[in-house]
Design a protein that fits this description.
mainly beta
C-alpha cells in the first residue's frame, strides 16, 4: 500500500517561490514515474509536471519555465520548485503517478496573493 504525504505549501505573494515535497512510502519509488497535480476550487484536478525514473520531465504549458520537478530516489521524495508564482497557481497540490494509481494524499495548499 503506497502512502503519499505532501508538504511545503503556504501563502506567498505573487512573484514569490515555494518548494513542495512528497514522500512516498511503501513503494518502489525509484522505479516509477511520478507527477504533481493541482486542484483549484471548482476545477478538475490537473497534472502540471511529471518525471520518469531516469529524470526526464514534462510540464503543462501553464507552468513551463516557472516550475521544476525533481526527485531524490534515495529518500523516496519528489519535489516541485515553484518560482514566479501567480494568483492562478492557487490550488491544493498533490503527488501521484502520472496515470494515478495510488490513493491520494491530503495535499498541500498553495495560496498566491496578488
Amino acid at each position: 500500500q503506497v502512502q503519499l504525504m505532501e508538504s511545503g505549501g503556504g501563502l506567498v505573494q505573487a512573484g514569490g517561490s515555494l518548494r513542495l515535497s512528497c514522500v512516498a512510502s511503501g513503494s518502489a519509488f525509484s522505479m516509477n514515474s511520478m507527477g504533481w497535480y493541482r486542484q483549484a476550487p471548482g476545477k478538475l484536478r490537473e497534472l502540471v509536471a511529471s518525471i520518469t525514473p531516469g529524470g526526464s520531465t514534462n510540464y503543462a504549458d501553464s507552468v513551463k519555465g516557472r516550475f521544476t520537478i525533481s526527485r531524490d530516489n534515495a529518500r523516496d521524495t519528489l519535489y516541485l520548485q515553484m518560482n514566479a508564482l501567480k494568483p492562478e497557481d492557487t490550488a491544493v497540490y498533490y503527488c501521484n503517478h502520472p496515470t494515478p494509481r495510488y490513493s491520494w494524499g491530503q495535499g498541500t495548499q498553495v495560496t498566491v496573493s496578488s
